Amino acid sequence: MEQHKEEYQYIQRADSSLAGTKRPPKPNTIEKLPYVLINTFIIIFTVSDRNRVVLLNQYLYHRFARDVSGNVSIDTTSRPCGNESDLASSESDTSRVQRMTSSMIMNFELVVSLLGVLGSLFLGTFSTSLGRKAQLLIPISGYTVRALSILAVAFWDLPLSWLYVGCVAEGIMGGAPGVYLGVFLYVSDITPRNRKRTLGLALLEGIRGIMGSGINIASGQMIQRATFLVPASFTASGATLW
């Protein structure tokens, strides 16, 4: 009987000590420094990504126009054309070049999208075990490979089929959707579960949209004034910066 009494008193003391222990309060504000850093990252990445889209479209058009017409000038403010001496022939060549460019871009997007489904599923499934750093580094690595492949093709004038190497790497590793997935998961970690999280995600998305719309114009002017190597180098450096 005395033994049971001592056990009961010991349990009461343990419960009282646990009740007196204060748990660390959950943060009720956005962590400012991590949030500023992730916004800086998303600005650089969005500018690099949108610049890559414009660069790839214009470069493919330029390459196909050169193959079809033999002589082409870079013009991003209006529809580029090849041999302007014969208007009918020029229109026919322009339509052909546009079809070839659209077809190759569609092939690239299909490769990246189909493989990207697998990459995004992997990243989403193992996001907790991988950690947030790996969640970002894996898709950034694939994106960097594609950016470097574009730079290599533009610099050494390689066959366009080499661009598929970058598409496969980006798709398998998650690509741009995987990067944005990691960014939004990271923001959800550093924001509280209230309206401030919604505000933080909304600001992040707003910054991404503003930077993306502005770079479309700037990238076209950059290509026109400095050929393709400068924007290709800019895209590759933006991808490898982080």
Automatic annotation (TrEMBL):
Its main location: membrane. The chain crosses the membrane at residues 104-124, 136-156, 162-187. The keyword Transmembrane helix applies. It is a multi-pass membrane protein. It comes from the Eukaryota. InterPro entries: MFS_trans_sf (IPR036259). GO terms for molecular function: transmembrane transporter activity. The keyword Transmembrane helix applies. It is found in: Membrane. Keywords: Membrane, Transmembrane, Transmembrane helix. SUPFAM superfamilies: MFS general substrate transporter. GO terms for cellular component: membrane. This is Proton-coupled folate transporter. It comes from Elysia marginata.
